[in-house]
Amino acid sequence: MDPTRKPSQLYRSKWACFHCRTAFVRYIRVEQSDQIRCLTCHTKATDMGYLFEPPRRSDYKQWRLMQLLAQHQLRYHRSGMIPKIRYLITENDKASYTEVQRNLMALYDDDQQLKKKEKREH
After folding, report:
1. pLDDT beyond 90 at 121
2. Which end of the chain, C or N, has fewer beta carbons within 10 A?
C-alpha cells in the first residue's frame, strides 16, 4: 500500500500472490488494501505498486526475489524505485538470492548510519 495515499481515495495497483505466482490489477480504496485476496487461490495478496511487472509464472527464482523485496517493503509505487531495485539491489536481475539479501542488508545498514549521523547533527 502506498503510504502517501489519502483514505477513501481510489487508486490502481498491481497485486501479487506469491503462493500461486500470479498478479492482477485492482482499483481499491486505501482502507481496503489488507482485504485483497488472490483471485486464484484466495490467499492474501501483496500490493506491489502500479509499476510492478510480474515475472513469468514459471520463473521461480524471480518470484522468490519479488517476495523478498516485498518483505523488505520495496515495492513499485514510484518510478524512482525501478532503478533502485533493478540496479542497486538485484544488479540488473542477475544477482542470486543470497546476493540480493546481502545488498538489502547493506542498504539498510547505510540508512541506519545516515539516520544516526542526522541525529548527532541535531
Report:
1. no
2. C
